[in-house]
Amino acid sequence: MSDTIIQRRGLMLVLSSPSGAGKSSISRELLASEDDLTLSVSATTRQRRPGETDGKDYHFTDLTSFQIGINQGEFLEYAKVFDNYYGTPRALVEEKLAAGKDVLFDIDWQGTQQLAEIMPEDLVKIFILPPSVSELEKRLLSRAQDTAEVVAGRMAKAADEMSHYPEYDYIIVNYDLPKSVAQVQAILHAERLKRNRQIGLSEFVKQLRDTKY
Q: Which of 15, 22, 19, 11 is nearest to 122 (CA)?
């Protein structure tokens, strides 16, 4: 029997965390090291900013087109944020999954719930926790991107976000970035090997059993 390569269906890898816990840093490291992992690109109705590229940073669209997409079920998840809509185009994600590519989602618990309702079998959910509240505040302040008032608002929101940790498959406490990245990679590699993602596995095993020596 000739060597047979078992094809794999891709998976949807969700990383959620309160702001400052490290999910964006972990995402960047994963995308740089995992060849079969791509970042989900959202559609949005907001105006394109200088330096942004359509199809790379966002899929930019108008309000009418977005609302038609909602009515026709074209989004896996969507939300309205500060008068603008953001959503995940379903067709693009399904195309990548069918091609054996994994899709990374940097979204909150609300978006994760929507994905879980539509495509639960393809979803792997990881929640990133900070080692402590004081460390979370320290990280937010060290970024020097927000005012003290904004940081205080993010800290207040963090408590509610962290209360949703039971909805996730895996929990990682981000004490150390390289270690946390390695842990997420271990989860990703294990999930890729799950039986239900191995396309043609039954036929492959049948060939093994039927082969005469």
A: 11
pTM of the shown model: 0.87
Residues 75/90, Cβ–Cβ less than 8 Å = yes
For domain 7-40+102-210, the CATH class is: alpha beta
Report mean pLDDT in 10-residue bins for the chain, 213 residues. 77 93 93 95 93 93 97 94 91 95 94 94 96 84 73 85 96 96 98 94 90 83
DSSP secondary structure string for all residues of 50-113: TT--BTTTBEE--HHHHHHHHHTT-EEEEEEETTEEEEEEHHHHHHHHHTT-EEEEE--HHHHH
Give every CB contact of residue 203 below 8 A, 6+ residues apart in sequence.
Answer: none
Domain ranges of the chain: 7-40+102-210
- In DSSP notation, 62-80 reads -HHHHHHHHHTT-EEEEEE
8 Å CB contact between 60 and 48: yes
Closest by Cα among 152, 171, 153 to 163: 171
User: How is the chain split among helix, strand and coil, in percent rounded to 5?
Assistant: 45, 20, 30
